[in-house]
Specification:
Elements: H1 14-17, E1 23-24, H2 52-61, H3 72-98, H4 105-139, E2 142-146, E3 153-157, H5 160-202, H6 213-221, H7 223-232, H8 244-249
Antiparallel strand pairs: 1-3, 2-3
Helix pairs in contact: 2-4, 3-4, 4-5, 6-7
Amino acid sequence: GPGGAALDGGEGGAGAGAEASFVAARPVSKRGGETKSKLALQDEAVPESQQPAQELEDLKEAPFFSMAALEDADFAKKIGVVYGALFLFPSLPISLITYPLFEAPVQAILSANLGATVVTFLFLIRLYVGWSYVGDRLEKDVGYYEESGWYDGFLAVKPPEVAQRDQLLYQFEVKPALDRVIKFMLLGTASVAASIALFNVAAPSDPYDYLSEDYLQRVRQDDGAAMMETRRSASGKPTYCDSRYYKAVAGGNGC
């Protein structure tokens, strides 16, 4: 039945057939006229696109995921391009909203760097998850498959020669890629920590502190604080004057 798994070895010589293909705990559907690729097993019950060797080929051809199969130097260049693209957009434009480039250039650059570094690190995690999933499928001798949907899923056992081939694919193609991604993830962890530390040194205070309730209450009660806020603002009036809410909290002082 759907979702079950068993070796079909108890009826009419089916045990011999198990050595040549996946053994599924459900009837084998016939799809005449289809030609399997060399990577696929000649078992109509197991979709070609879900067979681990084919999943590996698809992963290697997928955008971004194929990067992990490159050598370290080439992979580093690709990651550098990803970081650079993220730095220029959207990290830098977002950071400039808080830190104008001509007023706080160091804070603006470090803020953009932090955002780009974090997203690049998340990108590396996504690469790891994709390659790890395929590697797990290659390593296991029993896999879960769905012929057309979750309602007709089944488990199938790899014949010995296919299991051996998949182990070799894992050792020589997937494991080096995973090791490479893990190495860069460790570097990414250090980069994120360093970026946070540098940003905290350059911008130790909250840039939006002037909108906090405590600060606005202080401005409301202290004319000197209101005048300082006015001098800090390029428009000649406190920044909170642009907001009806914050203006009301501050009592309209200085507006």
